[in-house]
Amino acid sequence: MKATSSTPRARALAAGLREVREAHGVGLRQLARILGFAPQVLSLWEKGLRLPSVADVALILGFFKVRGEKQKYLLELAGSAREPDWVTASLPSLNHCERDAAILTNWETGIIPGLLQTADYARAIFESSNLAADEVDARIVARMSRQQMLTEPDPVKLHAIIDERVLASTVGNEDIMSDQMDRLLAASSLPHVSVRILGGDTGYHPGRVGSFLVMEYEAAPPIVLLEHHRCSVFLSAADKVTAFRKLAKMLTEAAMSEEHSRERIAEAAR
User: Whole-prediction pTM value?
Assistant: First the structure.
């Protein structure tokens, strides 16, 4: 069994396998003993540091009687986990890659970052995207579930950099926007959340090309997410990730201070 480079697919597969086991209340050593795996190996699989074979994943899923879309999703990941980049439309993908991140750096050009959105703001976005009602509900649940990372005992550190024009861009209606600005202002006061506003009158810079999210981990290489209308692109190649980290640093340095940013958000909330 070869060590992996912790690709986005490997990270998602690891989180998915751990999620299945924990949902059934089975301990790691207990599962290893039942299925005949070494506990250390199963632990490495669930951390994304080693890759199980497709047959190993099928055995785990079969034991827990996982069927349907989740079975298909995890088996497809097992078969392609060594590929460095990943284009996907699957809802669990971001949550699985984000789950173990220590630091998230999010640059947004068009909307409030997902981790800081209210449910009404998120609903207005999804309902404007020609999605079926059940898919809108599923996406809202997924988005609100993601936000629990900010309220856990050991929360993720979030650095949000937002184009100033986002504050004046109405999503839904004025009431929704007012509540959203209040939510953004409250989040900006948390010790593990940094919100920086980049002035709308700033000249051209590479960040204008599009939003991105850099996910950094304590014991694995970082991953970059580019989120689009109906799909997401995960990047893990070192040269690509380095370019986005440099861009994030440049945008942070060009943005307003945290204090000035809070003042600007408070103005938008009135």
Answer: 0.87
